[in-house]
Every structure is written in C-alpha cells, then in structure tokens.
C-alpha cells in the first residue's frame, strides 16, 4: 500500500539531506521516481542540502498540476514509483490534495519534506494540508539546536541583525548568513523565540554592563551542570 508521509520540522534539521538520501535509497533498489522542489535556497529546479549535496529537481510552480505531471510521465512510458517533494510547505493546498490522490489512485509513494510553521509560528498552508491528509507525519531524528543548546522548535526571521515577527510569509533565505538588508533565518527554542533573543542579541546582552542577572540565566544548557 502506498503512503503519503510528511517529514516536518524546523529549518536546519536535515530535511533536504534526508530527501536526497531517500531518493538515493530508492534508486539503488532499481525504483524510478520524480524529485520535486519549490523555492530551494540554491535556486530553481535543484534540491540542495547544507551538507553540500545537491541534485536537479522539477520546480513546482503554483499552477503545476502534480496529478497531470505524473500522468504525463506514464503516458511517455516512464514509470513513477515514488515522489520526493522537498520544500513542501510552499506547495498549495490543492497540490497537496493532488499528492494524496496520486497515492490513493495510482498507488505511488509520496515522501514530502517541509517546514511546519513560518517565522510568525503560523502553519504554512501546504504544511497544514499535509498534516491534515498524510498517512504519517514524522519528525527527522536529527534535531536543530538553538544557540543555548536546547532543541530548536521555531524559525526566526532576521533582517539586518534584528529579529522580526511581521512581514510576508514567504521570503526565501538561508540560516547561514545573508548580505545586508536581506532576510536570513535562525532556529531558536520557544523561550528564546518569545524573548526575541537571537544569538547576536544574546552576545550583545552578555557584554552589556546593565545586564540583569535573570536576563541571561533563563535558559541554562541541559546536562549535569544545569541547575534547572
Ligand atoms: Zn534557546
């Protein structure tokens, strides 16, 4: 029985790496599939991972009908046994419904990978529909970490060094630094997201003479040295 599986998490938890590995594993067993993405950080029609891997992929435009795409492959004699769908948070809800139909009516496995929530902590429409429809939702085993060492659960948007909580839902950027004036992202634990305490802000406060002791000591590193 084919399945629709949604691998969801924050940025930086290795979803694109996992997507590429999944494609490799299936191809190594002689299966043929389609690899799709939308707004990858490296540009159009490519899946890139922060570990340096990349491969070409079909870019999913808003108007692309994924059901038609798979039917067209079959019409040309190209077997499709699975789909890898990276950056699935950016797919439209209709495209997610097309994926579910592909699983149910064509018996094709669909593995979707995406960020659950945006920089305002709100679900992306594509992710919401995937959570609603998927046979399974899985969290990748590798955890992204906040600067404090806790598990990162939120994506913060940073513009010119300052965390922002308002703006367009989709502005493509990376977590690895951006030129001045451009959007970048940082993964944070909820506590530091709520306090808008990015790594940069924490460093600035640590060096500030009017620092109050409770400002920095709210989030000790987990482990034996911690006092809770
Ligand atoms: Zn933190």
From TrEMBL:
Keywords: ATP-binding, DNA synthesis, Kinase, Nucleotide-binding, Transferase. InterPro entries: P-loop_NTPase (IPR027417), Thymidine_kinase (IPR001267). Its EC number is 2.7.1.21. The keyword DNA-binding does not apply. It catalyses: thymidine + ATP = dTMP + ADP + H(+). One of its GO terms (molecular function) is thymidine kinase activity. Gene3D superfamilies: 3.30.60.20, P-loop containing nucleotide triphosphate hydrolases (3.40.50.300). PANTHER family: THYMIDINE KINASE, THYMIDINE KINASE, CYTOSOLIC. Belongs to the thymidine kinase family. This is Thymidine kinase. It comes from Luteipulveratus flavus.
